[in-house]
Amino acid sequence: MNLNLIKPICFFDLETTGINISKDRIVEISILKVFPDGKQESNTWKVNPEMHIPEEVTAIHGISDEDVADMPTFKELAKEINNVIKDSDLGGFNSNRFDIPLLAEEMLRADIDFDMKNRSSVDVQTIFHKMEQRTLVAAYKFYCDKDLTDAHSAEADTNATFEVLKAQIEKYEELENDTKFLAEFSSRKKFADFAGFIAYNKEGEECFSFGKHKNKRVLDVLNTEPGYFGWLLNADFPLYTKKVLTAIKLRAFNNKLD
Questions:
Q1: Which residue among 25, 194, 195, 227 is least enclosed by CB atoms within 10 Å?
Q2: Residues 102, 22 contacting (CB under 8 angstroms)
Q3: How high is the pLDDT of residue 133?
């Protein structure tokens, strides 16, 4: 079966130096771009992370410092990768909580203004966990009756994720073959940033989700404690979180001028 698409969707998977969104870097990225007419394009890049890949991480995905020593950096690849995904929705396995936030950090470090305003994200893991509560290897076996023998290879995981999503749509009548529906179904709590430091309340207003100002409106905190904004920008928060905070502050400033 084909996905019912209005625009392309890029399924992607990252292999990285670790799981810290702010500090770790991409060492491999694989993208499977699926078009509304069913055509598919696949690209995989090895990336020099410009930092050491810990041995315990290499043991998981099999990529060592030597494997990527002569590969281009992400900054050198960023425009090419962005050209592939810029017109597309995004899909992945645990992508809403890890792959998209980390990709956003890498893009912003490469001076590419990455955001999700005009695209949807379909997290196949969330659909799977809501339905079956298992891992990608189990999902591939359960839905596709296939063994994922090359798990933790970005290309193998990416292709398996795409196949699992198609099988999920066929299996569950309540799942609509529509990217926006799948994105909504696979989303968790609504956040303004990828890392989950700024959440939306019931009124759709941005609120801090951590620290001494947890559950307080961002605008109220910035108005009553202006120095907090400066502290946040200089602290070790993800670049995308800082981008969102700056946008909120600028929006408030522009509203005052109006």
A1: 227
A2: no
A3: 61
